[in-house]
Amino acid sequence: MLSKTKKSKIFVLDTNVILHDHTCIYQFQDNDIILPITVLEELDKFKRGNDLINFQAREFTRVLDEIVGDDIFNGGKSLGVGKGRLRIETGKPFSDELKASFREDIPDHRILAIADFTAKTYPRRKTVLISKDINLRMKAKSLGIQAEDYKTDQVTDENVLDKTITTFDNFDDVVIDQLYQQGSFAKADVKGFNPDANECYIFRGNQSSALARYDAKSERIYRVEKKSAYGIKPRNAEQTFSLNMLMDPEVRLIALTGKAGTGKTLLALAAAIEQHRQYEQILLARPIVALSNRDIGYLPGDANEKINPYMQPLFDNLAVIKHTFNPRSNEYQLIEEMVKEERLNITPLAYIRGRSLSNAFFIIDEAQNLTPHEIKTIITRAGEGTKMVFTGDLWQIDSPYLDMKSNGLAYMVDRMRNQELFAHINLVKGERSYLAELASNLL
Question: Which Gene3D superfamilies does the record match to this protein (predicted)?
């Protein structure tokens, strides 16, 4: 049983926390954890399937089985040295306040009833409901029950979310001239200069300016030239830096963030096709987040007809690149040939499972809708010679249980920062059209 005098907290877990991270029960230090029996009932519905949440449900069941074994579990089990105890709490009756507030007997309300019962049973200890469902947290707080989001894999430094290119004004024209004459200068030449790996800069002097990037291996700052990729020309500094990273074989993992219309996916796809001889295949994928959280099975048509609306933005980007060339040109025909032979493949992210990612240029679009665990799963499957590019808008998250600080794209940027094989560019200026840029800023 849980100790009534223990000063540590009691955390009551919601189902979505487990579906987000099946190892969550080990992330609460020496605090005790209560698992409502309703959660086990809900997890049972998710055990079958090929999506990540199905994997999380199955893995958690295995973890739970390892903890419990053949023992009777109603007294709770220790989670290990330095950890608290885990206990499954059976259903509890609704208090009068709960009955008056919620007439429906649904899983969320049963979890609230258990959290309410726990708080009243252990008044000397702090009981906290952990849920990624904002509405459930609001319901709990309205009843006087403390509730929090699952924060273990959230971004700690919020500055990475809106990072912009650092600009040095009134920079020494002599050093800028050195960039143009010699192509680089040593980090030590600038006092107090402490850049991260692959960080980009704009140097502005009185008579000249230059775009530059820091190389951590040589500890030198190199000039970045404006170059196009398969007919796509960069229109601003951020796009120039992005293409520079995308074309660099030493940078194996790239995050391109920014609002709609900044050219993230277009630049990545153009760079991939430009380097088609260096990679066996180009994969362009995106997660499917159904509208109103409904499965795409509800949509009419066969499998292809169901997923095509979700993939259309990727085909649109490919069409933009194709239409920069004459249909009879070799460049245009190459794209047609690559698509036909499936060397260039546009597909839902779920369909990538089981495919080899060796020597591939892999672009993952809308990555802000992935969880940290999904991002890790994708990256750890990268074979030899593979380059991965994650693109997304951190301000436009469709998943109901993710936000700016907990989504996988932000998590990756935060954790991979200053690694020599990683680069992050935040594209600020929209280049789709003046109308699109105006709408993005004002509406």
Answer: 5'-nuclease, P-loop containing nucleotide triphosphate hydrolases
